[in-house]
Design goal:
The chain is of the alpha+beta class. The protein is built from 10 helices and 7 strands. The protein is 57% helix and 12% strand. The strands form 2 sheets. The protein has a 4-stranded mixed beta sheet with strand order 3-4-5-6. It has a 3-stranded antiparallel beta sheet with strand order 2-1-7. The protein is elongated.
């Protein structure tokens, strides 16, 4: 069976058809998983670079109310601001912002300190600005200082953004391989009752990730948020493996 047909059946969660597949090399399953995750990462990376390029950070820093950041705190009296940086999956908020960010992580700049955390899971504790390793000879940063830093380090920031995206893609592959391996190992007792080997369980897990990853990619592209989607993501793969093995068991 060709990889395109395998992709189609996996995308539509056709576990009954997938249960009829012959055992294949675990390397072929790994290659499929690798291509799947890298394709998703490539699409999301292109989207994040595109979104970031459309944002005018220099115009924002020039037009926004003046601020003064020092070791003592942030002096800013303007309206609350939301500054997304999609290429780094982070949103910087200034002031009392209640709107939900569209990125994975948030840096909340407050008067007496800042908070950093997963979007929707921000810590209640803040870190003092004096703990940041950015001071040296500089005692404060204003709009003009930050604008100058952006202009002077534009090429380095682009290189860092590309490096971040590469590392992010690598971690996505690694995490996927580890979790699929764990799911296959945990499913072994159930798989043995249907004479399904670890290799086939790993295959079912790898192909069962197709639909959840496609949904995850679409959600990130559109900025739509589903609470606890990470749990739903992996739980759906476990269900897929269970249904596939159960189909084999019933047809035996």
């Amino acid at each position: 069976m060709g990889i395109i047909e395998q992709f189609q059946q996996s995308l539509f969660f056709q576990w009954k058809e997938i249960g009829k597949w012959k055992a294949q090399s675990i390397w072929k399953s790994f290659f499929y998983l690798l291509c799947l995750v890298l394709l998703s990462s490539l699409i999301l990376s292109f989207s994040s670079f595109s979104k970031t390029s459309k944002l005018d950070y220099e115009g924002l820093l020039t037009e926004m109310q003046p601020f003064n950041l020092s070791e003592q705190g942030l002096d800013y009296e303007g309206e609350p601001l939301i500054v997304p940086v999609p290429v780094f999956d982070v949103t910087i908020t200034i002031g009392d912002v209640t709107q939900r960010a569209s990125t994975d992580y948030v840096i909340a700049l407050q008067q007496d300190g800042f908070k950093f955390g997963k979007n929707g899971l921000m810590s209640t504790n803040s870190t003092a600005y004096r703990d940041l390793p950015i001071w040296g000879s500089a005692q404060e940063y204003t709009n003009v200082d930050v604008l100058k830093l952006l202009q002077e380090n534009e090429s380095q920031l682009k290189q860092l953004a590309f490096f971040y995206q590469y590392v992010k893609a690598f971690l996505q592959v690694l995490i996927s391989v580890v979790f699929i391996s764990i799911i296959a190992w945990v499913s072994l007792p159930f798989g043995r009752s249907a004479s399904v080997s670890y290799r086939r369980l790993w295959m079912f897990g790898a192909y069962g990730m197709t639909l959840p990853l496609a949904i995850k990619t679409i959600l990130k592209l559109t900025g739509f948020f589903i609470p606890y989607f990470g749990m739903i993501y992996w739980f759906s793969i476990i269900i897929f493996v269970f249904l596939t093995v159960n189909t084999i068991k019933r047809s035996a």
